[in-house]
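Why should sequence recovery work at all? Because a backbone constrains its sequence more than one might expect. Tight turns favour small or flexible residues, buried strands favour hydrophobic ones, and helices have their own preferences. The token representation captures these environments compactly. In the example below, the structure is given first.
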């Protein structure tokens, strides 16, 4: 049936006065494969690789060259998080309060009028049977998905709360589904922890701690007294600004206190009186905290990482802290108070649970409702560094949080209990620093759910386990690519990469809710299993009302088959979405992390999609395929066309890709080299790219743009805080005239990450530059400078800061509108500068979500915004020439 008619909304840019003002990898990229036989490419699981011959000419992306384990996803997640953070922090450390100050400034800007319209607030089916080409995850079994869920909470009245990585907190009053956002008024939409206390209040710790110490910073802890009906507001913040610009991994309760495990130590606050400052209970390296003597050290963000707090339910005065950076540090370990009230490291008496710094990393605790059993997951920095199969030290059980602890599972045992991860190089717990949850059935102390990459269940206190939520269905005997079978003959599983869990009741029945990189899933607490131990009763709760999709990019082209436009976009761990003109459900035509994307304005089914590290695939039919390529290689409809920097790992995790504004057949891609190809969507091989410029060893492109054959390329190298450097190179698509632009030494263009260009379509020498990070007011680092938007009228030779009253917030992308105005995407929404004016306006009213890319529709009358946490939005642009 045709899509419902949507009310048109307009961004008014005429009446402005002069005074107005960030699945799993695709099966083609799965770890451990030999590259010779997967149904979905070269890096799939070994047993899949052995099953069938890979079609010639349709080879999928190569692994990172330096990855000794074949380029597993754990490395990619870590690298992606690091690079997302680098763009916002280099060349130094960002002081607390930066995002809060930017949000206050942004909300004070005058508005443009008009309203944003979310076009991705509908189901997104990762198993859409239309798209079963070589680089799709369709038939893997995840079903409907949305963005990463970092935390879950549920009560016994059918209310479920889901906290997303970048799209805020959502509430369902129906046991899941029909979700409503309840934190849109907060200056941070990044969730670290959710917890219901004994009084039924909902506590929210902002700042996701799953990825990186400074990738998704929060604005503190908030409490909602009546969560069934209310919404979070800035006034509901607990305490002062002590926890602003931190991440919060856990909130725990006991003895009239709430305890917070944060990136800056363990803090506590009264649960009775919510005013007054938070108390710093313990920081292993206080000199590295804000205000400390080493606060500006490059490693400061990693010196006070805490993961969880175990409060003895039988005696809340007894507390254990799990402290440590996932990659290892001398301070890693467990701490408790001695007889003198001093926090002291535990060095013995823990039984099987290690206490040495090398083997205590990310830790999660859980306990039975009656206090009779405690459980723990421990990730080991030593295992992470030395064991290509897993970073998991183990799962443990004890009668008390003080031990002695008994190991009840390791990665080999979990792999043997129905796991999909049985191949060398990628086994359970390989991402244990990223994937962890743990909970105990309130009615049964021996009934435990554990989350790593997969969901595991034990009904006997850990003696035996079942993989009730396998990574995917690929490789199982029940799997089939047959489009008539949504997940083959297998039952639906969950999306991979588990982060949050809760147990609640709805209509008198108990359910377990899991949050992962694909959203929220539910099953009965005592659900059914098949002979392999896989659950038969998972339900996806991602019904389209919870749009927390984390887009890196957006592409728009005419839908020649159905009318209207086709909209595509690359997503964190949810591939490439495609929304065609008559769709009521989005499909996924490429799997894994979707990076940058190009879509032919004249034909929306001509698509170039980047996986990671400049691994580019193209299709000319939206990658529509019924899976018949598995028996007839000639029927594959997408192709790997990666430039050579992909094979040598000389490109960023999300690398820049652009088409010439005047010639859609000329593409520019950036790694160490600037690559150009002139065959448009007819390209079939990576060898068709030509290197037109070598940026130099150690440098890599951060942004590219082209118009009429003139090309701009921004780069960094080194790209982290240690010696950070940036620059701009320019030349022609034919390889002539290339040179490094000498940026003025006076800091006119700051020494920060250069994130995007916007070229005036009427004059290729007229170009705008977007600069990420925060200015020197917040960033302690050499040459941080000021300003976020710069303009050149001479092809980049000279630059002028046009930031004016633009809030001091990282900027990510820019586009010149048909009337000559400039729209700029920031980490907190979109701003606009009218032609002939100097001041900025806020475009519409979005939550405090990062918008990473802006694109115009083929007719130039609609602006598309790819947000990294709340889907894709559009707003109409009225041409006032």
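From this structural description, the recovered sequence reads:
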């Amino acid at each position: 049936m045709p899509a419902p008619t949507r009310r048109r909304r307009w961004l008014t840019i005429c009446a402005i006065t002069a005074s107005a003002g960030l699945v799993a990898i695709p099966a083609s990229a799965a770890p451990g494969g030999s590259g010779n036989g997967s149904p979905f490419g070269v890096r799939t699981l070994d047993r899949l690789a052995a099953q069938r011959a890979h079609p010639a000419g349709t080879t999928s992306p190569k692994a990172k060259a330096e990855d000794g384990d074949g380029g597993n996803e754990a490395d990619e997640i870590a690298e992606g998080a690091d690079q997302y953070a680098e763009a916002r922090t280099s060349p130094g450390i960002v002081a607390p309060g930066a995002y809060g100050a930017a949000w206050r400034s942004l909300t004070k800007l005058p508005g443009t009028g008009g309203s944003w319209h979310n076009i991705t607030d509908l189901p997104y089916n990762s198993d859409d049977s239309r798209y079963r080409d070589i680089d799709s995850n369709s038939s893997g079994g995840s079903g409907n998905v949305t963005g990463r869920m970092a935390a879950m909470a549920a009560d016994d009245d059918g209310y479920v709360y889901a906290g997303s990585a970048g799209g805020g907190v959502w509430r369902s009053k129906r046991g899941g589904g029909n979700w409503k956002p309840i934190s849109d008024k907060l200056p941070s939409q990044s969730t670290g922890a959710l917890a219901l206390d004994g009084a039924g209040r909902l506590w929210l710790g902002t700042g996701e701690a799953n990825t990186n110490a400074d990738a998704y910073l929060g604005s503190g802890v908030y409490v909602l007294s009546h969560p069934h009906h209310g919404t979070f507001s800035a006034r509901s913040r607990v305490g002062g600004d002590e926890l602003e610009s931190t991440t919060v991994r856990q909130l725990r309760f006991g003895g009239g206190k709430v305890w917070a495990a944060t990136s800056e130590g363990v803090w506590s606050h009264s649960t009775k009186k919510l005013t007054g400052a938070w108390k710093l209970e313990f920081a292993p390296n206080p000199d590295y905290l804000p205000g400390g003597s080493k606060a500006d050290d490059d490693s400061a963000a990693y010196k006070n990482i805490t993961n969880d707090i175990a409060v003895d339910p039988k005696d809340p005065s007894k507390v254990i802290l799990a402290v440590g950076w996932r990659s290892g540090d001398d301070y890693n370990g467990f701490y408790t108070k001695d007889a003198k009230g001093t926090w002291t490291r535990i060095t013995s008496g823990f039984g099987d649970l290690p206490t040495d710094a090398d083997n205590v990393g990310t830790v999660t605790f859980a306990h039975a409702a009656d206090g009779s059993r405690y459980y723990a997951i421990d990730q080991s920095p030593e295992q992470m560094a030395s064991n290509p199969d897993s970073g998991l030290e183990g799962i443990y059980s004890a009668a008390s949080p003080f031990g002695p602890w008994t190991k009840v599972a390791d990665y080999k045992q979990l792999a043997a209990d129905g796991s999909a991860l049985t191949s060398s190089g990628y086994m359970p717990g390989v991402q244990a620093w990223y994937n962890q949850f743990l909970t105990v059935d309130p009615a049964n102390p021996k009934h435990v759910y554990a989350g790593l990459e997969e969901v595991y269940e034990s009904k006997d206190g850990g003696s035996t386990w079942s993989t009730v939520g396998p990574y995917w269905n690929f490789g199982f005997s029940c799997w089939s690519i047959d489009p008539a079978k949504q997940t083959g003959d297998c039952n639906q599983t969950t999306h991979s990469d588990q982060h949050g869990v809760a147990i609640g009741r709805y209509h008198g029945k108990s359910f377990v809710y899991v949050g992962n990189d694909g959203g929220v899933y539910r099953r009965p607490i005592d659900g059914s299993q098949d002979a392999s131990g896989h659950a038969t009763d998972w339900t996806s709760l991602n019904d389209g009302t919870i749009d927390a999709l984390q887009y890196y990019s957006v592409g728009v082209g005419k839908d020649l088959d159905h009318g209207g436009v086709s909209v595509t976009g690359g997503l964190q761990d949810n591939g490439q979405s495609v929304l065609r003109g008559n769709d009521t459900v989005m499909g996924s035509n490429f799997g894994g992390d979707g990076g940058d994307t190009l879509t032919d304005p004249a034909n929306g089914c001509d698509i170039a999609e980047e996986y990671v590290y400049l691994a580019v695939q193209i299709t000319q039919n939206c990658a529509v395929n019924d899976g018949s390529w598995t028996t007839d290689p000639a029927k594959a409809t997408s192709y790997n066309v990666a430039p050579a920097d992909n094979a040598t790992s000389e490109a960023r995790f999300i690398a820049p890709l652009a088409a010439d504004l005047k010639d859609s057949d000329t593409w520019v891609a950036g790694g160490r080299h600037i690559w150009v190809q002139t065959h448009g969507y007819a390209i079939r091989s990576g060898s068709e790219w030509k290197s037109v410029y070598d940026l130099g060893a150690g440098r890599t492109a951060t942004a590219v743009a082209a118009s009429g054959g003139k090309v701009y390329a921004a780069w960094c190298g080194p790209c982290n805080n240690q010696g950070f450097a940036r620059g701009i190179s320019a030349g022609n698509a034919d390889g002539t005239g290339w040179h490094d632009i000498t940026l003025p030494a006076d800091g006119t263009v700051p020494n920060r990450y250069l994130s995007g260009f916007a070229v005036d379509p009427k004059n290729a020498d007229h170009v705008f530059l977007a600069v990420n990070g925060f200015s020197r007011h917040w960033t302690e680092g050499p040459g941080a400078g000021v300003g976020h938007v710069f303009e050149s009228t001479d092809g980049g030779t000279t630059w002028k800061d046009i930031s004016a009253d633009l809030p001091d917030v990282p900027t990510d992308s820019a586009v010149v509108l048909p009337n000559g105005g400039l729209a700029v995407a920031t980490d907190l929404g979109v701003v606009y500068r009218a032609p002939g004016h100097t001041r900025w306006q806020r475009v519409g009213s979005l939550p405090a979500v990062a918008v990473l890319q802006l694109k115009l529709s083929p007719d130039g009358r609609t602006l598309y915004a790819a947000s990294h946490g709340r889907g894709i939005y559009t707003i109409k642009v009225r041409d006032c020439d």
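A few observations help interpret the result. The chain has six helices and 60 strands.
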